[in-house]
Amino acid sequence: MTATELTQRIRQKQSYLCIGLDTDIRKLPSHLLHEPDPVFAFNRAIIDATAEFAVAYKPNIAFYEAMGPRGWESLQKTLDYIPKDCFTIADAKRGDIGNTSGLYARTFFDPSAAGLSFDSVTVAPYMGHDSVLPFLEYPGKWVILLALTSNPGSADFQRQRIHRTGEPVGEQELFDVVLETAQTWATPDQLMFVVGATQADQLARIREIVPDHFLLVPGVGAQGGSLAEVSRVGMNAGVGLLVNASRSILYASSGLDFAQKAADEARRLQQEMATYL
Amino acid sequence: MTATELTQRIRQKQSYLCIGLDTDIRKLPSHLLHEPDPVFAFNRAIIDATAEFAVAYKPNIAFYEAMGPRGWESLQKTLDYIPKDCFTIADAKRGDIGNTSGLYARTFFDPSAAGLSFDSVTVAPYMGHDSVLPFLEYPGKWVILLALTSNPGSADFQRQRIHRTGEPVGEQELFDVVLETAQTWATPDQLMFVVGATQADQLARIREIVPDHFLLVPGVGAQGGSLAEVSRVGMNAGVGLLVNASRSILYASSGLDFAQKAADEARRLQQEMATYL
After folding, report:
1. Number of structural domains chain B divides into
2. Contact B103 A158 (CB under 8 A)
3. What are the two backbone dihedrals, phi and then psi, of residue A19, each rounded to the nearest 5 degrees?
4. Torsions phi, psi of A123, nearest 5?
5. pLDDT number for residue B180
6. What's the pLDDT tens digit per position in B133-174?
7. Which of A130, A191, B36, B270 has a CA positioned 20 to 30 A from the CA of residue A226?
8. Which chain A residues are within 8 Å of B68, Cβ to Cβ?
9. Which of B168, B113, B121 is nearest to B144 (CA)?
10. Which domain holds residue B37?
11. CA–CA distance, A81 with A256 (Å, rounded to integer)
């Protein structure tokens, strides 16, 4: 999927909502625990209930990995079930030396490897270019690189001030350098950046550095970020935003009505997004 | 396992060799492909042949993940097969927001989750303290944090010069800040750092910042680092080094004699290490 196609789908659905399938087996409604694959049964119901309001789905791989081999089977069934008009994100935050990142790329992009064919994968930047480039060798597949994350620990390293020769001291922070450097590695048709919604005060500056790239924005909802503020500052001519919500949708109810309540919350977000488009 | 116990085992075996089980099904000797689980059959033979020369084994998770659910089964069997006197490292380079890192910690440390109970896991520092602390909640388990990696891309961000208020400009690089900050999170009984053998010119400086912590050093062998130089500069009173070799041992031969050739290479490294101890 190209950036232009993604923008078209956003305009058609009047939504830039990404739903995070952070499906924790310990939080599932109890009536699902009798299913042969409770995690997939939950995800299927969530997808059925929310697909008209979402343009993307993002399973966080940690939740599946923590269940061992059967978790990977639930992940595969979930990915296969997501409607083909939705953009899919493996939220894996991987990254290793070149030949090893190549294997992670195979895992998530090459269906003959682990049975998975996501549109994109999240990647951690710490190890630099050769840890990222192997993911970009798959035509039409995307890297979503961590830039400025939504958690408190983002202050520890991402916000460190960088001094580069010939530039004034303290003008740049590490995440600025990640944005500047990484955009030389790929076009806006293969590269997005993760920017937390709790970092909305930095979004204007980020938009100056990467005016054309899509941003994946987690942290609206349970983590406290503002959809209005993110949309006002982060949107560009091609929309350029995927805003993720996970827990506020998945666990809107723990009862028999969990899918209906999830649909209600997804619709509420979509309707708010429509007013910003 | 405590740091003192690890040092004792190193002295007993006269080895600080870690063997990286980066088992690529595309590189296995062809006679193993008829086995029901070729990856496990290969690992078992490698472990049998090398256990007397190694103090640690480090499966890189990418290699198993790329095979889907059956890869996780091969990983579990491999971990169960590693002798109990060896230190085990899940080379996963994970890291996410707090509750999600907690799930990655469960995956690798809590056998009731994914059937795995590694002694340690490698973690990427970019997301900061709350992405690392959940791994430290397991008594006796270790975090091995990326500091200065062996690959060319380590120059992109890890070597950026940091400016901190009140300090001279350009004295510190990002990896220094990672080392300084992270050692406040855990004692040398729960925290090691990854320092690539190709970065031996930085090792003296790293030893000044973290005099007491173990360092996991990849990059000797196929990547070109020098065991002599790493040992000379990196060793501390408790030895403080685990030096990893992967491809040079695993793929020393692609024939029927692969295990014997792996043993020869592991013995050669162990004998060189004994001269430095």
Report:
1. 1
2. no
3. -105, 120
4. -130, 140
5. 96
6. 999 999 999 999 999 999 999 999 999 999 887 777 667 999
7. A191
8. 72, 76, 113-116
9. B121
10. 3-276
11. 21
